[in-house]
Amino acid sequence: MLDASVAIVILAAGKASRMGEGGKHKLLAEFDGMPLVRRSALSALGADAASAIVVTGHRRSEIEAALDGLA
């Protein structure tokens, strides 16, 4: 039997333009005091996956700050 390995990719590079004007970004929105992108990354890191990767782009520095301290 062959062991399969799966990588998790979190796409966090978009502009969140459907959130409307005003600078709101869905991945930076907080739920129970934690940004959604960090919650997603923690879930990915807790999964039995070979790796977890976050692709950043728009508002990169804010997304990376929300992920600070994670592998």
Short précis:
The protein is an alpha+beta fold.
Tell me, briefly, the overall form: elongated
Q: From the helix content, strand content and strand pairing, which structural class follows?
A: alpha+beta
Distance between the terminal alpha carbons, to the nearest Å? 30 Å
**Main sheet strand line-up:** 1-4
Strand content: 15-25%
> Which sequence of SSEs, written as H and E, runs from N to C?
EEEHEH
Helix content: 25-40%
Q: What is the averaged pLDDT score?
A: 88
Radius of gyration from the alpha-carbon trace, in angstroms: 14 Å
Largest sheet: 2 strands, parallel
Low-confidence stretches: none
Helical element count? 2
Quick tags:
23% strand; two-stranded parallel ribbon; alpha+beta; 25% helix; 71 residues; two-stranded antiparallel sheet; single chain
Structure report:
By secondary structure, the protein is of the alpha+beta class. It has 2 helices and 4 strands; from the N terminus they run βββαβα. Strands 1-4 form a two-stranded parallel sheet. A two-stranded antiparallel ribbon has the order 2-3. A hairpin with a 2-residue loop joins β2 and β3. The chain is elongated and about 50 Å long. The termini are far apart.
Write the layout of secondary structure elements.
Blueprint: E1 7-12, E2 30-31, E3 34-35, H1 36-46, E4 51-56, H2 60-66
Parallel strand pairs: 1-4
Antiparallel strand pairs: 2-3
